[in-house]
Amino acid sequence: MEEDQLNEQESISDCIKKQGFYSQLFLSSGYLPQFGYSIGFFETYGHPEIICFGLDLDLIDNIIQNAHRQIKLGMRFEKDTSYGGFLEGYDIVFIDVMNGHQGDWVGYDAWYFKERKVPCLQLIWPDKNRKWPWEEEYNEDWKFIQPLLNRSPNYKFLESKNTGVLADKGLFDGTQSIVSVIHDSEGEWTFLSQRGFNPTWMEVYCLENVIRQDTTLNEVFNMNYGKQAVRNEKGGDWEYMLFEFGEDEE
C-alpha cells in the first residue's frame, strides 16, 4: 500500500476516534455525480452510515455534520421517513442502500470496517417542485445526479433503462460475448464483441436489455466519458484506456 494512502487512512481513523465520524467527499468525475458519505456512524453510535449525491460538497458535508449532531443526541433516522432541518424549505427522506451497491460507492467504509457489510442510508432530496426521483414529474435533469441505491444492483447504470445503445446482435442469439465497451465523449454507450464494429451486426437496443443479457457489464457502469474497457472473455478482468475514434467507428 502506498504511503500517501496509509497516511490518509491513519488520518481518517484519528478523526473518527476524536469526533465519532469522518466525512468522505468526492468531486464529480465528469460522468459520475459528486457525493459524500459518513464513516464511523455505525461503529460509534450503531447507526447506519449516510450517503448523499448531487449537491454542492459543502452542503453535503453540512448535511453529514447535521446528521451527526442529531445521532449523537440519540436520534435514529429511519428509511422511508421524511425529515426537515437538512435543506432550507424542503424535507428529505432516507432510503436503504442495497448491499450490491455499497462496494461501488462507499469504498472507504469497506476499508475501515475490514470488508464487513454495514448498514447505510441514502439521503434523498426533492426537486424545486418537491417531487421525488421516483415520481414521473421529477426534474429529468436531476435524475442523473441522484442514483437510487435501493434498487436492484442487477442494473447499475445511471442512464434510464430505456436509453438506446449500440450492441452486437450476437449478444442476443448467444453467438457473441461482449468484450469491449465504449463510453464516448458524447455520452453514448457501445457494446462490441470480438468481431469489432460493423453496421451489419450492430443494432440499437435498450440499455436494460443489453445488461439483462450479461449482468457482468454492470462492472463498467462508472466508466467516464471518452473511455473504453476491454477484456478477453465474458467474466474476465477489464482493462481501461482512452477511447479514440478509429476508421471502423467513423
Characterization of this structure:
The chain contains 8 helices and 12 strands. A 6-stranded mixed β-sheet has the order 1-2-3-6-5-4. The protein has a 6-stranded mixed β-sheet with strand order 10-7-9-8-11-12. It is an alpha+beta fold and 250 residues long. It is globular, with a radius of gyration of 20 Å. The longest helix is centred in the first third of the chain and has 17 residues, at 3-19. The mean pLDDT is 91.
What secondary-structure arrangement, pairings included, does this model have?
Blueprint: H1 3-19, E1 22-26, E2 35-39, H2 41-45, E3 49-53, H3 57-72, E4 82-87, E5 90-96, H4 99-105, H5 107-112, E6 120-124, H6 140-143, E7 164-168, H7 170-173, E8 180-183, E9 189-192, E10 202-206, H8 207-213, E11 227-230, E12 239-242
Parallel strand pairs: 3-6, 7-9
Antiparallel strand pairs: 1-2, 2-3, 4-5, 5-6, 7-10, 8-9, 8-11, 11-12
